[in-house]
């Protein structure tokens, strides 16, 4: 009985070089996206400043900031803004606000509580007072049911005191300023009326008859004596 020969180990199987057909790798259907590296650092600019820079880059309007080291440029910018304000006031019928003029501001590195509050001179003291300091009310207005017994007695006594004061003012009538002249005028009028009455009585005919009879009686008395 014959056996097949044993396989011989050659160099190709040992190195893994086979003649088998290799399966091709599948290609992706879409182009791979580029992976961008994300920046984890916090930006020093705000979101509005970032959008502004992107808009300036897209439109190409690059604005160069004015260097404050050049004093002539700074002075020219301020004068131009003032001129524009005056021209706007002449040519517009509506109110136009004043332009914002950049100015150097000094900020002291001190807490806010340590800084002194400076008030303008033109402001009155009433503007810095609280409402209860300007107008002092009569206190808490309570209903009759809410009052206690001492409060009711106090309110009743105040009402009586006010009523007595008002009644005393009504009883005492002030004398007129021209009282003396008024009394003199009354006396003069009374004397005039009295003299007129006497004149009327004397000129009356009955009074004349009475007077003649009195004279006759007097003559008789004289003759008897």
Automatic annotation (TrEMBL):
UniProt biased composition (Basic and acidic residues): 31-43
One Gene Ontology biological process: rRNA processing
Top-level lineage group: Eukaryota
The keyword rRNA processing belongs to this UniProt entry's keyword annotation: yes
Compartments in which it is found: Nucleus, Nucleolus
GO annotations of cellular component type: Mpp10 complex; sno(s)RNA-containing ribonucleoprotein complex
Keywords for the protein's UniProt record, in alphabetical order: Nucleus, Ribonucleoprotein, Ribosome biogenesis, rRNA processing
Chain spans, region Disordered: 1-43, 150-180
Pfam families named in the record: Mpp10
Biased composition annotated in UniProt, kind: Basic residues: 152-163
Recorded family membership: Belongs to the MPP10 family.
Protein name: Uncharacterized protein
